[in-house]
Design goal:
- By secondary structure, the protein is of the alpha+beta class.
- Helices cover about 20% and strands about 25% of the residues.
- Strands 4-6-22-21-16-19 form a six-stranded mixed β-sheet, with no helix packed on it. Strands 10-9-8-11-14-15 form a six-stranded mixed β-sheet, with helices on both faces. A five-stranded antiparallel β-sheet has the order 5-7-20-17-18, with no helix packed on it.
- The radius of gyration is 56 Å and the shape is elongated.
Length: about 750
């Protein structure tokens, strides 16, 4: 929105669907251009523009005609005129379009049962179709009987064609012009196209008139069928077309001439696409060239005619390619003598009517349209396939969701009309497009307003729209004065050579500040000396995210201060567990405790590395007051009266953790080496409270008798053990000596014997 550089409300709302214009008169800051009034809605609100002063017109839709689709069964007693049958809904609506904002509406289509049908049979009467003509002569009544199964309102017509009546397509000798056939064959004179029978509900009349037709002849193989199709399409009155389903059956066994082939006969004028029937004969075949395929497609579509090509097997490939170029057309294989033509027509009709394809008229410049289909059996499609639904039976209902978007406003802003219709049907939806190119406040503008420097502009939507040749926010200058050096002097700050602080342009003696790529960053001020992005930062954020940058100075939100709004005035982070700020040992600055006693530290000045603990600090005073002993026994009344003391019977009766006041449990030794227990706490009023167990725990003296008895018993046991060891060693020694003696004794006996 900002980049659109909109000078008026109308230009602003054309910049995008989310752009709004603030018409509040004093909305702009000094130095801001008029285009700063245009921004996205959230930005305008954040800048202080009241919601009621924001121009933001929205598109809309209004349905003018919305008749329900017809529910009618075949054979119903009630006979409706074709114009009373509705197959498409709604029929007429108005869309108000704002640039970039799509408007969506739903379109419903339902194939009506017993819907009237007009069928025109266009036949090639060149000589090769002789045997086919015999079978077609009884086509009227037979086809009537078959079509009664589909509709009770059926009409049939007949036309024939051969070729342009000039060389080299036919022989122009007098004899050949009378009878183009050879031998004794009786053929009719060649012709381009003849309307034999206009559409009628009398099948017998069809048989009668067709029975009187004769074969003709020509020289070349391709036929002049395109001339005939064009005349059938555009000569609605002569053919008798109604606003119902229109079928054209094109029967031939040959190819076709198309635009450009007329040059062979010296015909160079393009086909004009108009009706030239006189006495039911096409009279301008020698004057106008064959129509092009695109021209045929246009006329067939304009006149809602669905074409069935009944051609022989030989030319199937050619006409299938043609079918791909002509919407709502079908190709059937014609037997060599046209005996299967009725079944071919029925099959082709069922194929054509089972598919609905939406088309729209030419769109105005800058308008786009998209489709989404909701077909049978949950089949949904978008883009080009969103225009159509297939496999539709009579009585089936399908829906389409259609988006219409204007990407720009028409130059003159006039309304436009487009139409959407199903191919091959006469019914259509008429859509009137109304473009929102101006704001409501512009119609309330005051031309030549005194607010615009003596009437040099129109005051509208809170700003001046200058007359031609005038510029400036208040139209105070003419374009001739813009480059005047005298004007530049008004754009310099005192004692400065910079024009608009190098952040803007001097226009009409006033600074118009530059725009930044980041639309949230803005220069402002009389000399563009201010901005909202060069303030001190904290944690990477301008003003720490806790204030607004105005003219390079932070304006802090409540409870914040400092050059970068990084100093919180909230004392909650400094609150100690005892309810005191910084434990009473410091001051709270920017949410952090500044401890006044240097020996204390921590988030709330609760830690002291060099201090005695609470227990050691109060041990002597508790000992002297509770037990009347200890180092401070003599000075107890002077030094130890700063706390309230309560005696309890046992350790279980001491206060336990979980109470509101901070609590310390202590276990200390007295001068008699006895343990005494107490707790120390400080309440929210700063009063110290001590609870002490009234009886110290003293260790008992040693029991001498067990000790002496243990020592004596130990000595005796050790003596006995030594005695036993000595005895064991002596036994081992004696046994060794005895064994030695026995050995020497044995040696002495041996000596005696010898």
């Amino acid at each position: 929105c900002i980049k659109a550089n909109a000078k008026s409300c109308g230009e602003c709302i054309q910049a995008g669907p989310n752009c709004g214009w603030c018409k509040k008169t004093d909305f702009l800051q000094e130095g801001e251009p008029t285009s700063a009034r245009c921004d996205d809605l959230a930005a305008l609100k954040s800048k202080g523009c009241p919601v009621e002063d924001i121009e933001n017109p929205r598109g809309s839709k209004q349905v003018l005609e919305d008749r329900e689709v017809t529910n009618r069964k075949i054979g119903a007693a009630e006979k409706l005129k074709p114009e009373a049958i509705t197959q498409i809904q709604p029929q007429k609506l108005v869309l108000k379009l704002r640039v970039g904002e799509p408007q969506t509406f739903s379109l419903k289509f339902k194939r009506a049962e017993d819907y009237p049908i007009d069928l025109y049979y266009l036949m090639d009467l060149s000589y090769s179709m002789k045997d086919d003509l015999e079978n077609v002569k009884s086509l009227g009544t037979a086809l009537m009987l078959e079509m009664e199964k589909i509709t009770s309102d059926f009409r049939i017509g007949f036309g024939s064609f051969v070729e342009k009546t000039v060389m080299p397509y036919i022989s122009t000798t007098p004899a050949k012009l009378r009878n183009p056939c050879t031998g004794d064959q009786n053929c009719t004179s060649p012709f381009s196209y003849k309307n034999v029978l206009s559409l009628t509900s009398e099948g017998n009349k069809f048989n009668e008139l067709v029975g009187k037709q004769h074969i003709s002849g020509n020289l070349d193989s391709p036929e002049g069928g395109f001339d005939a199709i064009m005349q059938v399409a555009v000569c609605g009155e002569q053919i008798g077309w109604r606003n119902v389903t229109r079928l054209l059956v094109f029967s031939t066994d040959a190819g076709f001439h198309f635009a450009g082939d007329g040059k062979l006969g010296g015909i160079v004028l393009p086909n004009d696409g108009k009706c030239h029937l006189e006495n039911n004969m096409y009279t301008m075949s020698h004057y106008y060239d064959y129509p092009s395929i695109a021209h045929l497609v246009q006329k067939l579509s304009e006149n809602n005619i669905q074409t069935i090509f009944a051609v022989t097997e030989e030319f199937q490939a050619v006409y299938k390619e043609l079918k791909n170029l002509i919407p709502k057309s079908a190709v059937g294989t014609l037997s060599s003598n046209s005996s299967n033509v009725i079944q071919l027509i029925i099959d082709a009709y069922n194929s054509l009517s089972s598919e609905v394809i939406l088309e729209n008229s030419k769109l105005p410049k800058g308008v786009t349209i998209s489709y989404k289909s909701f077909c049978k059996n949950g089949v949904n499609d978008t883009q080009e396939d969103g225009r159509k639904c297939s496999n539709i039976s009579i009585g089936d209902e399908v829906k389409f969701e259609i988006n219409v978007t204007a990407n720009e406003c028409p130059k003159k802003g006039q309304n436009e009309t487009i139409k959407i219709k199903p191919l091959g049907f006469t019914e259509e939806v008429e859509i009137n497009l109304q473009f929102i190119c101006e704001c409501q406040c512009q119609s309330e503008g005051e031309p030549n307003s005194p607010a615009c420097h003596e009437g040099n502009g129109t005051f509208e939507c809170g700003a001046c729209r200058c007359n031609e040749g005038r510029i400036g926010r208040l139209c105070e200058c003419s374009t001739d004065e813009v480059n005047s050096e005298d004007m530049d002097a008004y754009c310099r700050r005192e004692n400065s050579t910079e024009i608009c602080s190098n952040n803007g342009e001097c226009i009409c003696g006033q600074c118009v500040c530059k725009k930044r790529e980041n639309t949230n960053e803005v220069y402002s001020g009389k000399y563009c000396e201010c901005d909202n992005f060069n303030c001190d930062r904290s944690n990477g954020l301008i003003c720490g995210g806790n204030g607004i940058c105005k003219c390079r100075v932070c304006e802090c939100f409540p409870n914040f201060t400092g050059s970068a709004c990084d100093c919180s005035l909230d004392t909650f982070p400094c609150m100690a567990s005892n309810g005191q700020i910084c434990n009473g040992r410091g001051t709270c600055e920017c949410g952090t405790c500044n401890c006044t006693d240097p020996k204390f530290q921590g988030p709330t000045c609760e830690m002291c590395q060099t201090c005695l603990g609470v227990c050691a600090e109060h041990k002597d005073c508790v000992q002297c007051r509770a037990f009347d002993k200890g180092e401070k026994k003599e000075t107890c009344s002077q030094e130890c009266m700063h706390f309230n003391m309560t005696r309890v019977e046992s350790r279980d009766k001491l206060p336990q953790p979980g109470q509101p006041d901070p609590l310390s449990h202590c276990k200390e030794k007295d001068v008699d080496d006895c343990w005494f227990y107490f707790t120390y706490s400080v309440n929210s009023n700063g009063e110290a409270n001590v609870h002490v167990v009234e009886t110290p725990e003293c260790p008992s003296g040693p029991d001498i008798i067990p000790i002496v008895a243990g020592v004596v018993a130990g000595i005796v046991l050790i003596g006995l053990a030594l005695l036993l060891i000595w005895k064991l060693l002596m036994i081992i020694h004696d046994r060794r000596e005895f064994a030695k003696f026995e050995k020497e004794k044995m040696n002495a006996k041996w000596d005696t014997v010898s």
